[in-house]
Protein 1
Amino acid sequence: MFKKIIYFIMAALILLGIAGDWTRVEAEEMAVGLSFIYDKSDKGYRIIGEFLDVSHSNDPQQSQISRSLIMEFEARSPAEALQQNLQLEKALYGTHNRVRFFTEKMAQYGIEPIQDFFFREFYLDQRPIMMVVKNEDPLLLFQAETGLSDQVGGYIYALSRLKEERSTLTTFVTTLDFAKDLYKEGKQPIMGVVEVKENKINFDEDVKEEEEKKPKKYVMDFEGLAVFKEDKLVGYLDGQEAIAYNLISDTVRQAYIAIPVSGGNISIYVMESKSQVNTEYLGEDVNINIKIKTRLAIAENMSDYNISENKELKKAEKDINHFMQTRIKEAIQKVQTEFKSDIFGFGDYFHKDYPKKWKTIKHKWDDEYFAKATINVTVENIIETEGHTRERVGERVYAE
Amino acid sequence: MSDKPVYPNENIPSKATDFEEALKGLFQKSFDIVISKLDTRHKQAVIVFVEGMVDKDIMDRDIIKPLKSGEFTGRVKAAVKCGFKELHTMSEVIKSVLSGLIILYYEGSKSVLAIDLIKWKERAVEEPDAENVIRGPREGFVENVYTNVMLLRRKLKTHNLIVEKRVLGRQSNTSIAIAYLDNIVNKKVLDEVKKRLEKIDVDAILESSHLEQYLEENPLSIMSGIGLTQKPDVAAIKLLDGRVVVLCDGSPHALTIPELFMDSLKNSGDYYNRTIYGNFLRALRIVALIISILLPGFTAAVLTFHHEMVPLIFLTTIIQAKEGTPFPTLIELLFLMFMFEIIKEAGLRLPKSIGSAITIVGALILGDIAVSAGLVGAPSVIIVALTAVASLAIMSLNEFITFYRIVLLLMGGSMGIVGLSAGLLIMLTQIISNQSFGIPLLSSFNKVNKKDNMLRFPLSLIKRRSITVVNNKTKIGEVVNYKGDFNV
């Protein structure tokens, strides 16, 4: 009987020794990082971190809202900057990190060296969203409004969760997504962008002077995408081009897009979108055929078309098809000529269609084959529902 | 010191004076044993009884008056107006006196009459505190073993219900009753129970918990494999399931043997309520079991090792609460758990009126002040309170839960999820390897018993007895299907 107890204690001790998780940290001993800006500096790397700060929350004079603490570190490498610094008195904790920002300088220099740090360090993970900061001064990010959230990290995380499937103007790319694209043959990576802009409000004349004396207010703008070639930033796409990118790469789930047709806009609600890509190899020339099929609903109709009539509806459908077709083509052409970087992953389709040929041309794909490829885009839209009303609201009033 | 009584010999003395002397020699220092000589028209008689244990009115009317009357002919057996038993040895006489019988000695006769007019003050049959029910009978066992057997007989009016008597304890001579249904009981278990009862040779059995500890197989195991109930209807259900019920004089707790793991999670309420609600209650109890064993360990593991599992908003609250408290999470949880155990123990032993005061002081004031004084964080108080409430939902497994809660807390708090898993493995190994009277504790998890295990099927669908304990598939009986009978 007592033997059993001794065995039990021995087993527990052995377990403690060999399986014990020695990374024990109490919650209050951690500095929870929420977002980090990575910048290239003369010394090496400059990292600006946003940390969760609850030190004032027990003070009744202060509001209960947790705030953030901004700290700047500089060293020869990111690991050294974050761990060797003598400013942070608590253990750095990175698994609640939501966003990784890169300055333009950093992104143009190349992300790969720092990517290795993200994957190797045990207190970091691959979930944070990656973004390029367009501004010269990245610290403006922490002066910008953060919506209804307390911190920049939380703001962008909440935004990405809501807008990932509802907006096509950008794409929220996580560290893992970026790495997948970076190491995949036949696809170049992209990243979201953020630009901090002044929040300009047109005040009335009588308060204008007073309001303008107050400190400036900033907002963040996330429209567009950053195009990378290998791990280096080569340029940007705007919001409309980002829609084309999202339609081709099949990431649109629900989205509202305004299409200019004769007389005004028709806003469509994309309920489902599917893209099909196939490639043709015609002796040194590559044809890329893209077919996009969508199921749409009309969200608003401000155009001349009376979509309650089938004929007019078909016309509107045609217009929408044409508009989308040209826009997608334009976007691809921009990438082909300006960036020569296959961010759409056509090379991957070519690899599947012509696996033997791919091996011989893969090194030249972006610069020679993708840049010169002929692109054929066909868009097939089906308007499934016109919404709650068939007629335009107010039409009858006008008729009278 | 020898346990044998000191008297000259086993034979009943032929003279009243000798008989009186022999008994007086034995009981001279006990004031409650009345030994008095009666002069009748013929020879002398001696009457012996324990003060307070007999009905004196009836003794007067049916024994003393007839002996004293002028019509007494000298034939005692004819004169006594109530039932009696004849005793032939002195040791029988002494045992009978101490059990509350009236001893009537008549000079010259070779035997002594033992008359049962036992009447003593006892607690009325009332609802037991620990097993309150909303629906179902409210009577509970009392301290008198005969009353308890009567309560059982009233539930099961069959000749198959056999109640055997044993007397245990060299000094206490406690009556033990072994009850079982002859046609259903598992004979192997019954034989084992009898064998173990025979081996018990101790000074006294004052409570059924003594008995439990002498009967169980592994005194250091955390589960005894023996169930406890204070309710005759629960005991009857156990008997019908092939269990052996052991009653002990002086204890309102009946032992049911064997008690498997799932039995601890079952409750008579499960069967008295309608199927869906009964199942809901059982599921609730299983959830409570998981919470009460795992929650503190899991919390300690997650809050000290795996912060990535905690949502950011909750983590913010935790950091806010822990900011300014001196101890690690593990110590906080341990401290609060011990505090709760102390409050529980204190509240249990005190008179009810003070008990509730202790609860208020302990739970409200101590908990609240500990947080506002910055001794512990509020989340730890919530975790321990939740665990405590959950563990009270399954009182039958109280010892088991309390022990493993602390083990898992220590392992989870020092080794994270790895330690917690290792602790769980140790716990499961122990439950799996434990047996109760030859039946594995987890054996009720089998194909045939599925209708009344984790879930209870409608009673009309449970057509066969569980085979776990009873090794036969006895049909419970044809169940009438009333569907359509009421179409008028």
Protein 2
Amino acid sequence: MKRRSLFITIAGILGFIFLYAPIVSLVIFSFNKSRLVTVWGGFSTKWYGELLQDPQILGAAWISLQIAFISACLAIVIGTLAAFVLVRFKKFRTRTLLSGMITAPLVMPEVITGLSLLLLFVAMQGLIGWPVGRGITTIIISHATFGAAYAAVIIQSRLVDMDLSIEEAASDLGAKPIRVFFDITLPTITPALISGWLLAFTLSLDDLVIASFVSGPGSSTLPMVIFSKVRLGVTPEINALATIIILIVSLGVIVAALTMQKGNKQNVA
Amino acid sequence: MNEQTCVIDDKPWLDARQPPFIRIKNVTKKFGDFIAVNNVSLDIYRSELFCLLGGSGCGKSTLLRMLSGFELPTSGSIEIDGQDMAGLPPHARPTNMMFQSYALFPHMNVEKNIAYGLQRDGLNRQEVKQRVQEILTLVQLQDFAKRKPSQLSGGQRQRVALARSLVKKPKVLLLDEPLAALDKKLREETQFELVNIQESLGVTFIVVTHDQEEAMTLSTRLGVMDAGEIVQIGEPREVYEYPGNRFVADFIGSVNIFDGRVIEEDTNFVIIRSEEAKIDIHVSHGVSCTPSQKVSYAIRPEKIQMCLKKPKNVKNLLKGRVNEIAYMGNLSVYQIELEGGKRVRVTQPNTIRSDEGAITWEDEVYLWWDGAAGVVLTS
């Protein structure tokens, strides 16, 4: 018994090292005084300071945040609608097809998604004259499409668990359908909406491939800027930037998980 | 008020001049090909506590959901207090429902749960507060107003659900298995509480239940449902003592059934020859049947006498051997195997403490009953 638990402990530690050692070393080297990335020259936060001086990175970060925010909002609206259709309208002919199509972006290679979206935008510009060129708008649309897929899956699972009789109870007590939605349904699925939004937000912030396809001049996102910089060699500045991004993303994921968990607990009532 | 009107007041269904409060007329509900409720007609009177009793899938809940407006009848009509319910959505009906799962709003505290219905009626804040306070006092939950449903016990949630559905003073309160989620002890206490509340408020209650004991304790009248149809309507005693057919006799309480054939038929007695019992059963009242008609004779276990010595001068005497004894505390259930192999269930109250001289396994016993103790079932 003792042996086995020791084995599990060691396996666990090795697993975590494998997963997180690169990230931890990145974080540590972001505090490196030396300009050489691989040689430790003492503790310093100067690269963080320099980062704040770099207009190119700050500009890209601002664009990325805008895109992430707007596309996450769009994703939530589309995802909620899709989830509702899938959960509440049990019988319609293309149900299986729709359900498959909604989850498809989760497994589709990003290169294909990006390429197809690019072709679509080019064709659309030719046909209806919108969107004009590639830029922030096209990135937002692209990110909203795959963000919606994640949001739909999360909201769907929440809706499936939801006790329909509480909606019936509200309407029995005199609430009209629209009131039932805002008083009962929305508060019940709020945790799913929040975690779906946060997930869509972080996914958009992380995305490099799709954004590269559909971006245009003046709309380079943060991952794109980092990538192009890294091709010229990794600098401690990039390490600092990566550390900040890791912080933001993990905060987002943790908050998403906690809200979902809290909501589940309440729903058990 | 003389005695005569008093009786009629208590039992409006006996008075032909009394208009029914709820009138269900030829209601049928189909889900695809499946007929959940089949041509049900039912009159329920003001301030009644009516129980719909039946096994799962018999259509009792569907009938309740049609009253509340969650399901629409495929055909037929429902009237409440003279108003046709057709086309009225749930939020516009004068009914409130207490759900089996209680369906409390998990994100609102007790007070807000109860106030929700009143707020939808546009009552002012002062009045809402007062009504909520009143109903909380009635269900003895004054100290729990600020709790969330997740912080309450099962019994407390049940009372919140009851309070929430009663606070709007509906014309009809529909209760779907209101006590099913409570444990036995609590359920028995709550049964009486429910009857008291119903009597003090005078609201018409319709209760759906699969528990026959619960239905007997609660109801003024009950309707037994089977396969989408109402098979018998009556007061609890009436349904128990005079079941209309084999299904009801078997469903309500336990019963011994002997199949037989009428061999003698008169205005004040009937004799049934039963191959199973190997005797001629003497019935001391007239039954509307024809000679040589096939019938079933039903007798309740507690109406059969049992002893070790052969009694003298009794009719309907059987002999058998004790096969099985179930000691239940207040009474014991005996399973007696008759000479022909048929098994009969007999219950006896345990009036003395010691088991000396008591009937035990493998004893030869005599069973007999009075000519008026059983019921002749022709269907």
Protein 3
Amino acid sequence: MNYITLLNNQTIGIAAIPEIPYDTFFEINTGFITQHPERHCVNYFGYKIGDAIKLICCIADDDTHQIYVSACVVKRETPLLALTSKLLCFEKFEREIHENFGINFIHHPWLKPLRYAFNRFDTSQTIANYPFYSIKSEELHEVGVGPIHAGVIEPGHFRFICNGEQILHLEIQLGYQHRGIEQLFLDKKELLQRATLAENIAGDTVAGHATAFASLWESLCHFQPSRDLDFARTVAQELERIAIHTGDLSALCADIAYQLGASVFGRLRTPIVNFMQEWGGNRLSKGLIRAGHNPFPFTPALAARLLVVFDAFVADFDEMCKQMFKLPSASSRFERTGVVSHDDVLSINAVGMAARSSGLQRDIRLSHPYGLYPELNHEPVIKRHGDVYSRVQMRKEEIKQSIEYVRKLIASVPHPQPAPSPLQQPQTDAFTITLVEAWRGEICHCAITDAQGELLIYKIKDPSFHNWMALAMAVRNNEISDFPVSNKSFNLSYAGHDL
Amino acid sequence: MLDTLKILYHQGKQFIPNVRTAQVPGIFRGRPLISLQTVDQAALTSLCPMRAITANPVAIDLGKCTFCGACAQQFPDKISFTTDYKIATNQRESLIITAGDDTPLQLNPQMIRPEIRSLFRSSLKLRQVSAGGDNSSEWELNAANNVQFDISRFGIEFVASPRHADGIVITGPITNNMAEALQICYDAVPHPKIIVLVGTDAISGGLFADSPAVNRSFLQNNTVDLYIPGNPAHPLTFINGLLNLIGA
């Protein structure tokens, strides 16, 4: 066998992953995906074993709910034929491996630095001299934006090539937020420190990343979470989706200068995040999700309180949505702006909301369900046009869907398990993969332990890793003045990408 | 038009009338109280993932604390968190709360430069720089500007250009890759100017303090005017901290 088949949250011995020669590795991993839109690469990374580098590739199959994992040991000096030469979806992964280890990939379209990690192979490359694509022409001009942007947001640099007001090309350079978080997962040995790190990967996706870490760790320690743990995590993730989507609708209205929408959606986020504070003491759910136990059990009193919050929210939300969607001045800015086609999102491996807005069904809650999602019979919201309008509609419908799911869940609040059994030591020489569908899309965490059960590698993939390219594609041929609203319609994470 | 008026009517008045006396809902973890009870101090200090708790006497450094509440859950008789959100100060040492200490945090008036109050009391424009911030403090800074917290009613606003700003608000532990951009931005702000640190990561570096990807030399070379703790900082902590600084 050339690969091993795993399920979401499964732990196996690292030796169980077949090590195959690179040409076989190339054939099977490109073969999995070619002509198979239901399959996509959820993680592909390398780590050092002595002088050599071990590559691990994980391909998820949405129909069979399985993950196909294969491995290959290569030498740094040996150039490899890029998987990207056949399929663009590997583009970012290979850039990362090239940046970290110096492996040369032949026929890769651009092996540019990804995030200027502190432990990169070639430290002579610095963030100040990124090799931007440019066109020599008297008709065209370049516009550079960032790293510091006009609003209160994270840093990143956007380089536009424009013909008059029209964007021909956008290149997005990231890395400014790089904090070395994957290395810190190895250096900080305490569970509480690692849980805190997981919450800081992207501070707007706390429930998503904290659930991913907790689930991975519990799998690694052979701990079966009780129902109240799964319940709390599922509810927290859906509430996070409601809160961020509502805040995004506010920001989208602000970007088209629709003050009423910006104010009303902006204030509607508050009761949801304030409920998070009533539950766990933090408006962004920090401190709420921990591996092996539930520090803040969800009580029937909280359920009753949440129903009151929802009733007030829905009335105002529906009224505001109805008004916004019938407003011609809003529709004219949203419709046919920032279009990214189904074929494009498929080829670049876009995930989550961005993929679903262009008609591509990618939703871990359905394809690799975890927590209490199997009981919810989740049906993803799918939009076809791939424009800003689709992503606005997507948010509105996902908010309504999440409210229904949470209402269904809190109708029967599980009793907290009085004293959960303590976590055992992690399995030695093991590999674990965890997938979570956060509000932005698919999160993938992978861990490998050594002979003592210590973490050897902790690999994080945020949905933004792929979706930044979707934004670059979406703004082509748009007026540059429509860039802010397109950007906000994706609302991607800089910290989650840069790690 | 009528529908718009209906929405306005249904929304009513959303703003918090008094941001100094407003109560936060639920179990918000603000200023901690440490009792004089005798506990296993070694167990308590090693429990904290941030090493924010020190022994003899037991003290919590709010500049390092993430307010996760793990200490209060395990030592409920020793440590409790109040809902007092006014925990901003201009003196780094004031962020350290010791056992038996139940006085609200205050600014040290001697350390406030006179020009801050004479120039910025009724108008303060700020440039925000996220330097490795995880976007949680940034969300809450944006929330400070929504119709409920409405910080702009005090003449405090975030502006797009450092040239229009009276100071910078830093979030995040300051990464190597942002260090130069932060310096350029600060240099572009005209004098006199203030520096405000928001969130645990900015104040102490948090869990990232000893990461080789972080470069905090900017803070060694410049004087900080206000520390606003939290993970993320609550909008009311931010607003009250600034109001106390500018004397509004």
